[in-house]
Amino acid sequence: MRQNTRIEQLTELAAAANELADLLAKQYGSPDKWMGPSKTDYVISNEIVPTFDKMQTITVKVMNVTLKVDSTTSVLSTDQQVAGSATFSARRYSALTPEIGVRCSVWEHQAA
What we know:
This protein is α+β, with helices and mostly antiparallel strands. It has one domain. The protein contains two helices and four strands.
């Protein structure tokens, strides 16, 4: 009887782990949510879209997530605590930024 209880607990734990894996794949598995040359930058939100003329204030909150497995029921639960937060401003800039007073020898060479 004890062995059957343990098997049931492990089965429930495996189901919870599979559910977590599915959730993570759904959240982070889409290639459209990753950018950069090596696809290592995650797009947190499509709502954060700074422009050239308007800065956008962004608040980021980091959470500690603790996973716990109940020894009796094998229920997987989470506990979240705020680890810290920060606010910063973002503005979109051009890849090429002109610097006043700096001459570009490439342009001069092409003009000659």
